[in-house]
Write a structure and sequence with these properties.
By secondary structure, the chain is an alpha/beta fold. The chain has a domain of 171 residues: Rossmann fold. Helices cover 32% and strands 20% of the residues. It has a seven-stranded mixed sheet with strand order 3-2-1-4-5-7-6, with helices on both faces. The relative contact order is 0.12.
Length: 270
């Protein structure tokens, strides 16, 4: 909530604010302008809106329904029953978070990139502006189906159905991008996936993390985990920042989310 005298900034826009084509500035990337134009005029039926509120990220329902692996898969399939359940294509907050993520990657062109938790592929389209080839992963069958439909016939994109908690994507990548993922895992799952994810980054490659702080960093326990294992951006990002062999390039702690860019050190030449 905003306090008295707080100035509304780019990172304080409420989640339910929407964007349409004319609201974006002329300097925004073409992909963002395209997303906004495609989203203009989208309506939300009353039943769909009620379902969104019932499974909102800041409720106990989400924490309960993601407490076990099989439950989390069912939870996400239920969320994706309605297209774009997090309003990525219409939320001004999400568009600004997208832009902040792309700014974090500015100045470098990536050959092969991995997006973990791609959803319906909305952010994947932006990664294509910075990468030659993108492998996009998600474990939701509905999300993968829509992402594949979105990129049908588009060169440089491979959408895979994969649960990183139980399988690796194979190979090494110049960029691994992971947003809004780990706080849907238990602490044990997080530690296992985090250790393997570091190995997915090629020497000299980058790992970019983006996680929200407004809800998940408000857990009741000092170590950042909630009563049923809820993770926080602080726990997640600090864990990677301490990994030997990863160098912190940028670490932005904004009011509602944290962005961290790390680079895997080159292997010593003998």
């Amino acid at each position: 909530m905003l306090g008295t005298g707080h100035q509304l900034g780019d990172d304080d826009v409420m989640d339910d604010e929407r964007v349409a084509g004319p609201d974006l500035q002329a300097g925004e990337p073409a992909a963002l302008r395209h997303l906004a134009a495609a989203a203009g005029g989208i309506g939300r039926p009353g039943v769909a809106a009620a379902l969104r509120r019932w499974v909102a990220d800041d409720t106990w329902v989400k924490r309960l329904l993601t407490a076990r692996r099989w439950m989390s898969r069912a939870y996400f399939e239920a969320r994706y029953f309605i297209p774009d359940p997090w309003r990525l294509a219409t939320s001004l907050y999400e568009h600004r978070r997208f832009q902040a993520s792309m700014d974090m990657l500015a100045g470098r062109r990536y050959g092969r990139a991995l997006e973990v938790g791609c959803g319906e592929g909305i952010f994947t389209a932006l990664l294509l502006d910075r990468c030659d080839h993108v492998v996009a992963l998600d474990f939701s069958r509905l999300a993968v189906r829509r992402a594949r439909r979105r990129f049908a016939g588009t060169p440089g994109v491979e959408v895979r159905s994969l649960d990183v908690r139980v399988a690796d994507p194979g190979g090494a990548f110049d960029l691994v991008f992971c947003a809004e993922l780990f706080y849907y895992m238990s602490r044990r799952e997080f530690e296992d996936v985090a250790a393997r994810m570091v190995r997915w980054v090629a020497p000299g490659g980058d790992l970019c993390l983006v996680h929200g702080t407004s809800v998940h960093d408000a857990g009741p326990r000092a170590d950042g985990t909630g009563a049923i294992g809820e993770m926080s951006a602080r726990v997640i990002h600090d864990r990677f920042c301490r990994v030997p062999g990863l160098s912190v390039i940028h670490d932005r702690r904004l009011p509602r989310y944290r962005l961290t860019l790390l680079r895997r050190l080159e292997a010593p030449r003998g």
